[in-house]
Amino acid sequence: MANAANNKHLGKDFLPPDVIAKVTGEAKYAEDFRADGMVFARLLSSPYPHARVRSIDLSEAEKVPGYVGVLLPEDVNNPAPPESPLLTMEPGYIGSAILLLAAESETAAQDAIDKVRIDYEPLPFHLDPLVSLRPDGPDAHTGGNVGGAGVELQTIKWTNEDFANAPAGAMPMGKAAQEWTYGDLDAGFAQAKLIIDTPFVHASNSHHSMEPRTAMAYWQNGKCILHVSSQSQSFILPAVAGMIGIPPSDLVIIAEFCGGGFGSKGAAYTLQALPALLSKKLNRPVMMRISRAEEYYHGAARMGFQGQVKLGFAEDGRLLAADLYIIQENGAYASFPDFRNAADGLSLMYQPAAMRWRGLPVFANSPWRTAQRGPGYNQIMHIMEPLLDQAARELNIDRLQIRLKNSPERKGVFGSRRTAVTSCYVREALERGAQIFNWEEKLRLHGQRNGSKITSVAVGQAFHPAGFTGFDGLVRILPTGKVHIHTGVGNLGTFSHSSTSRIAAEVLKVDWDDCVIERGDSRRHLPWNIGQFGSNTNFTMARTNFVAATDAVNKLKAIAARRLGGNAEQYDVDGKRVFRRGSPGTGLTYAQAAQLAIQYGGSFDGHELPEDINAMTKESAAALAGTGLIGVAKDTLPVDGAPSAFAVGFVQIELDLETGKHTIVDYVGVADCGTVIHPAGLETQIKSGAVQGFSVAALERIVYDPQIGLPASIGYYQAKPATYGDVAHRFHTSAVDSPDPSSPLGTKGIGEPLLGCAASALLCAISEAVGGHVFNRTPIVPDMILNHLHGRPQAHGPLQVNCQ
Amino acid sequence: MLKDMMPHFDLYQPDTVDAAVTLVKQLGGDGWVVAGGQDSFDWLKNRVKRTPAVVDISGIAELRGVTDNNGGVTIGALTTLAEIEAHPLIRERFGLLATAAGRVASPQIRNVGTLGGNLLQDTRCWYYRGGMDCYRAGGNMCYADTPQGQNREHAVFGASRCVAVTPSDTANALVALEASFVLRGASGERIVPAADFFVGPAVDIRRMNALREGELLVAVNIPATWAGAEFYFEKVADRAAWDFALVSIAMALRTEGGTIRDARVVCGAVACTPLRLTAVEQALSGGARDAATADRVAPLASRGAQPLGFNGFKIPLMENLVRRAVRGGQA
Amino acid sequence: MAESIDAQAEARRLSRREFIKRVIASGAVASSASFVMGGMAGCAPRTRAALAGAAERLISIDVNGELRRVDVLPQETLAMTLRYKLGLTGTKLSCDRAECGACTVMIDGVTHYSCSTLTHMVRNRKVVTIEGLRGADGALHPVQQAFVDELAPQCGFCTPGQVVAAVALLQRNPNPTREEARQAMAGNLCRCGAYDSYLNAIMRATGNTGEIHHG
Description:
The structure holds 3 protein chains of 3 kinds. Chain A is built from 21 helices and 33 strands. Chain A is of the alpha+beta class. A 7-stranded mixed beta sheet of chain A has the order 3-4-1-13-10-11-12, with helices on both faces. In chain A, strands 8-16-15-14-9-33 form a 6-stranded mixed beta sheet, sandwiched between helices. In chain A, a hairpin with a 2-residue loop joins strand 6 and strand 7. In chain A, helix 18 (about 680-700) crosses helix 20 (about 750-770). Chain A is globular and about 85 Å long. In chain B, about 30% of the residues lie in helices and about 20% in strands. Chain B has 13 helices and 12 strands. Chain B has helices spanning about 15-25, 40-45, 80-85, 90-95, 95-100, 105-110, 115-120, 125-130, 170-175, 195, 280-285, 290-300, 315-325, and strands at about 10, 30-35, 55, 65-70, 70-75, 180-185, 190-195, 215-220, 230-235, 245-255, 260-270, 275. In chain B, helix 5 (about 95-100) runs antiparallel to helix 9. Chain B is globular, with a radius of gyration of 20 Å. Chain B starts with 9 loop residues before the first strand and ends with a helix. Chain C is α+β, with helices and mostly antiparallel strands. Chain C folds into 3 domains: about 1-30, no CATH class; about 60-125, Beta-grasp domain (Ubiquitin-like (UB roll), Roll); about 140-210, [2Fe-2S]-binding domain (DNA polymerase, domain 1). Chain C contains 7 helices and 5 strands, in the order H-H-E-E-H-E-E-E-H-H-H-H. Chain C has helices at about 1-15, 15-25, 80-85, 140-150, 160-170, 180-185, 195-205; strands at about 60-65, 65-70, 105, 110-115, 125-130. In chain C, strands 2-1-5-3-4 form a 5-stranded mixed beta sheet, with helices on both faces. The longest helix of chain C is centred in the C-terminal third of the chain and has 14 residues, at about 160-170. The radius of gyration of chain C is 24 Å and the shape is elongated. Classes of the chains: A alpha+beta, B alpha+beta, C alpha+beta. Chains A and B meet through helix 2, helix 8, strand 30, helix 19 and helix 21 of A and helix 13 of B.
């Protein structure tokens, strides 16, 4: 199946069904829906970075004309700390939601919010994990300063000796919350020709999805109808129902379009439940429009890192030993295991013979952090790749060669458990990229001056494992002959809800015009599926659609055998027909077979369902029973190892030494994503992933005043995501296109490392332009470059965060 | 907290300057004058500043347009930045202003943003914009000038309690071009030179210009003095679009037989007002416009600068921009 | 917010540095939550119906070639009128601060951020939104078709604004270079990062196939 030439759909471009609605404005996002009698709700956000709410006085607010009602912390069931509360009496950052107030107009709602009087008791706060780790340091919330991301909520304070023992500029390294080791670390360092030991900072950056996470809810016949902004469709439903306090079967989620999420709208989040709860309380539809500032407060951010890494290289550039300590800034609530992922990323990409990792997730009084495109795996590449260049420089090795030297081969292993990846073609990707980029030729341009500008070229790599299994597929052949592919994956804008649905079309050998994708609204009877995140769609959904379509094919054959004689194995499918092998005239059209499926009933038309499918899939399939031939199955296909995507990027820049500003002249991105199923979609992802990478590497920032806890980077112009003029002027894209053996169709993910390789390449290029690795942090911004070139001290401390 | 809904205000839309002046007088301090509104609406949506009434002057046709004025130009205050960027007379005589106008924010902003609005916009100090009760907001504090204040964008010159900087790109060009501003109030018209129009915190900590309550900026006069001179404008910002200068430079220069006869050099985003670099100007006089002169005068640019914790980079950046301006040509 | 008032009063007695030290020590923050700009005399609304020039609420605006009668509050932005009163939800709100371009519409053929335009400012002017671009027969506008052909949109939220900005550009300059298009589109943010695809689509719409970048 891997060879695209033999495929009907895979590896070929197509018109995704949702693209026209996007260019006409007909695509409906959560804020585009209306309901009769709809009221408008606004959040009241904490002005304090950490406080206790002593009392809430609504008396003046209630007098505002148009006031309708309010949802208070006492009205909601908050999860146990450190999970994000829905509404809180202990706000953990400036912007924490305390209450939700509804009025007949949004202006009236805001006017009433302004009249709510809250008595706050300010509590100690901080915006630097290292401050919280001091013996007398403040805790971001009262339950403890460390936890989340699989680590129990607890208090960890380092000793004064821990701080005093750290050499100047180095990170103090007290007690960790988690750690692992493999190999003989001491021996590795002892053998090393070159040791690099450096602190580092990876800044946090907000997701800043263009669509603020507006939600609108109303109740109808006991069911809650909820319009949300979500990367995921089926996946979030049980958790959102749980927050609302209703069974999943009483919740309808409509999320046909999602205006960007980048990880921040993958799982269920608290703002999805609030309008539903207020709507229930008021018995009115509630529109909760989220502003840009609120999207900053509730739209999450990538985990920031402070750390120290010690690397031992052999003379030939081989990485012998790595010792990594990462402190992760969690934000105020439970977060994501970026700090663990980072260790896996280092261990896989460079295959060190010995490695130790220590990690500590620390809460800070900043908004919720969660996965952002390549959580942890990308941050560590942004730190490591410039260090690899430094090693290459000191060992006098070509920068491409040192990467090839340490490259994981086919079955690279990673982490303390030495898990193997299912496939790895990063070497091929590097070689392909070097050829397209013309690495040898470009190296001759490297370092050339043109007036105040210097040319610099560099290469970066990244990796991301993905590979959830065990979800369900659901397809349906109607008596009209049309194939309906039910997908609950979500719509992040990658078109992979459709490109993976085409796998069902491929298996059923039907034309795309004969397929209808059912998605975007849980009333369309959707199966239990993974969300659209973590590079899982192409892998996980390929499998679910494969098993469901295979089930449908088997049923087609069984129906044909029952009707036309013989046994099922003697039948084949093609051209919307099931027919006897060797006797193509003996057969049924799909339309006829679907009609017969209804006649035969049982498992053929969904009246009997497999035992092992999820309750949601069962309910959906049961609702469809009797409408046609139902193909439904759980993905129980084997998987051997961790399916992993790789990507490499080559970049050529000009850095103006007088202004600190760079121009990206040329960029080459190469993906190792298994079988390419949608070339146009992949090209877009390679380019746009790089755009986000350039943005993370050298533009985007999160700034706080640590004295008052106030954020500076709320809006776009302050947070500085890349504009049209800040990205590469020329992009080239390519893919290795080698199938992954663990997927029946050779697919695996790709989204995340496309960001990381580009960011790494740009960070390397800037560093190399100014004489090597001098900025042990991201982002690298013009003021840092100017300070360095003019011999001025950097304004930030070596481990300072949330600054500049 | 930053809000998102403009509160109610009464809206007035006069269509003549006289009507507008009368209205503003009648409203006393309660009338907020809006032209393009690209700065004003932010304040009002955030509910950090409020007003009972808005006077929308965008429909006053007589305040729009560019006319010849004895070899100089007169520009109506409501002329948009896009019109200025494209206007043949301005491009021919005062390309410096056309270039500066073209570097403001984004095409949509330039389509609606007026020259007057660009000159009168409020500072972008993020503490002040965030609603903190700082000196400029009538309080008793400067949050930016504190031990850990985040002041990368703030002033290195002219601080006086407040360390905010001018956000305007066109103001620097107009100071270099020795423009003057025509202000009209109920009691008549007065003309203020650009150099006096912009005021720092030592003069008035609440306002960034000399406009008095009840006055409208109606026009900008650029004299013929620098028409057709050699110009240089550059704005260094983090992003290519929709960003404010980290430092910008506007220079007008006359040479005679390869020798610099006279120069005006103005830096933006380093002080509360456009900062004329008079020491640089004087040192340029009589020199050749070349790299040697550039290197010689550049250090004078930052003389007297007093950096805060995070904005020391503005010192070399100012010097480098002076270098580039003097060298001329491609940046 | 008794806390903040006390803090401010105390601040007047202390030097700034001392105050900051105290802020740090106590964890208190001078709140901005209920802060009203001082010096804006008389914040209480007053009735001034008698003053000349006051805007009428019931107005007609020309949207996509149709004259629409609509009741508009004085402070109402065009984006809100379009979205909540005229049902034209293709115009998106993302920043509501004139920074991102998701709300871009044409007014008299020129792009504006509708989130930062008062509806009362567009009386007697022609507004064109994303919904006004399709041909009379429902066919996609050539720019929309090019966006589809290049698979330019990703999440799609910025796309209506991108399309309107591109249409406005091509009306003004039917043959922009790729670099000119980049400059002209600079006021439209795409967080997905699809800039190169959008530029390809614009080059396709102009027929300038030599500047379409693939591979």
